[in-house]
Amino acid sequence: MGLKETVVLPLAKRWISGVTLDSAIDDAKKANSKGIGVVVNFLGEEIKDPSEADAHAAQYLRLQQAISDNGISGFVSVKLTQLGLGADETGMEARLEKVATNADRLNQLLWIDMEGSNFTEETIKVYLATREKHPRTGVALQAYARRSESDLKRILDAGGTVRLVKGAYRESSDFVFPTRKEVRENYAKLLGILFERGEGFAIGTHDSALIDEAKELAGQRHVDFHFELLKGIRDELKEELVKSGYKVSEYLPYGDRWYAYSKRRITEHPSNIWLLLRSLV
Ligand SMILES: Cc1cc2nc3c(=O)[nH]c(=O)nc-3n(C[C@H](O)[C@H](O)[C@H](O)COP(=O)(O)OP(=O)(O)OC[C@H]3O[C@@H](n4cnc5c(N)ncnc54)[C@H](O)[C@@H]3O)c2cc1C
Questions:
Q1: pLDDT class of 271 with cuts at 50, 70, 90
Q2: CATH number of the domain where residue 193 is located
Q3: 202 CA closest ligand 1 atom index
Q4: pTM of model > 0.85
Q5: Is 74 helix (H, G, I), strand (E, B) or coil?
Q6: In terms of residue numbers, what domain contains 172?
Q7: Which DSSP letter does residue 134 get?
Q8: By the 8 A CB rule, do 25 and 72 touch?
Q9: pLDDT tens digits, residue range 210-225?
Q10: How far apart are CA 25 and CA 28, in angstroms?
Q11: Structural domain count, the chain
């Protein structure tokens, strides 16, 4: 075992369910027992080898089946680059089609994560084509991206569904609003559009000011939506929201490609660097 496995993995388990499908199902049951739904992701991105991308698609089919067999309230969220986007477009479309057809068969929603800026346009195009045949599919949009307002309108015009997040990738200021204040303002603006025109959308943030804003908007227009929060972050808030009558889901990632995801969670919040350093001594 390397340093990553011995030092970072125990800390990363705060944000990931573990490496196996069973560990994700165990966490899903725990979340469901508190009235919290789940969105489960098998970790992996930028997979170039078609046989590996096939294995990822097969894992999602097993995961969807396990969600159904265990009576879990939840569904899966995929990254298109783990199904071959950027390397094997035709194969990626065929793999996504299998996962989307399986979601329909099992009466589950299907979410598509949003990745780095080099995949934004392609992700939206693939999403819009998929939802024509599989309307219960949704896609994440990043409030840090300058283009997201027009993407949101384009998706809503097509009758699509969105999970609104701030955005987690390192990007240039050509693509993103550079300050936290601007990102939050854009998030609030996009929330306004969602509450005006959207249905069945997800609010993916742990930011109390934005959650309060969403509650306020929900009081003005009664529309179906839910809050989505990540595993290991603001657990008390999830339970408070459930007690107040809101629908809440927890995003549960699992799998042996846990490092890239955990690195994003550790670095986006300074206190986690201390947790990491403390685990080294
Ligand atoms: C359900 C869900 C799905 C997501 N899907 C995507 C996606 O598809 N594509 C994408 O680019 N991004 C995705 N993200 C990540 C998102 O873009 C942000 O990086 C992440 O949610 C942090 O932003 P925030 O809105 O919580 O606000 P922040 O301002 O970062 O955080 C608000 C508060 O939450 C707490 N907090 C937030 N992050 C941490 C942390 N890592 N450790 C400890 N405390 C923390 C702190 O109390 C902080 O003050 C998703 C997030 C969620 C919740």
A1: confident
A2: 3.20.20.220
A3: 1
A4: yes
A5: strand
A6: 17-257
A7: -
A8: yes
A9: 999 999 999 999 999 9
A10: 5
A11: 1
